[in-house]
From TrEMBL:
Keyword Cytoplasm: no
UniProt xrefs under Gene3D superfamilies: 3.30.450.40, Winged helix-like DNA-binding domain superfamily/Winged helix DNA-binding domain (1.10.10.10)
Ranges of residues in domain HTH iclR-type: 15-77
Keyword Transferase among UniProt keywords: no
Domain IclR-ED: 78-260
Recorded superkingdom: Bacteria
Protein name (database record): IclR family transcriptional regulator
InterPro entries: GAF-like_dom_sf, HTH_MetabolicPath_Reg, Tscrpt_reg_IclR_C, Tscrpt_reg_IclR_N, WH-like_DNA-bd_sf, WH_DNA-bd_sf
UniProt keyword list: DNA-binding, Transcription, Transcription regulation
Pfam families according to UniProt: HTH_IclR, IclR_C
Amino acid sequence: MVTTGATTGEPSGGTESTARVADVLLMFTEGPSALGVSRIARELGLSKAVVHRILQSLAGRELVVLDPATREYRLGPAAAALGARALRDSDLRSAALVLLRQLRDEFGETATLSTPVPHGRVYLDQVTGTHEITMSVELGRRFPLHAGSTGKCMLAFAEAAVIAGVLDAPLEKLTPATIVDPDVLAAELALVRERGFATSAGERQGDAASVAAPVFGLSDEVVGAISVCGPRYRMGEELVGLIAPRVVAVAEHISRRLGATPGAHMRSGTGTNATAAAVATGRT
């Protein structure tokens, strides 16, 4: 039974109180690594008193720690332990890690693994490239689905409601190349479904390019994506054309390990039949 808080500004019940604690913790998954009470309260629409009490409780359990000099909080050792345990126990990560290394060894570029989260996606793992200058991604930080190959390939195969939610909302312009026109993005997603992979050149990070393919789970729902990424000056059309079918094939292999129907990635398109010509005619 949900009871009503007796004090103004207090959560109205256990469920709302738990949701507020979760919302505060999730604030640390994007943006700056350290946050103050005022910013959290402003962005979540809560009173400073409520936010302060939540942070005090989290700090008491080492989920966050306070920097006494700046009076800002950052994630603590207990949060790091939770994240490490989640990564260790992730079926998706276990199924993908060896294959990510194979992709890295084959092309010399960084191979990554991502999964969708509410209102975006996060990198779960990466195997960095072998070149002297190579790409590195930020694990655990939430990024939007409309920017970059990894987000687009997961969005393209997401449920219709998820796609509609992204297309109907303002699209943040992360770089000059980010797609912010919903009609252009819808056409891009259709192309991704047709060929089974997505490409990006500077859409999320200006100097980076990537190729990504979706990974499906037991119910043939999209549960993640793998990508190969590198500096734009190396990731030209020729290399992208070589990488694309391999990324699709590896994503299909991971999907089978997770119990997806063979060929799930081809249900709406040509999948591994996509050629370098398809890359050249799309957004690269």
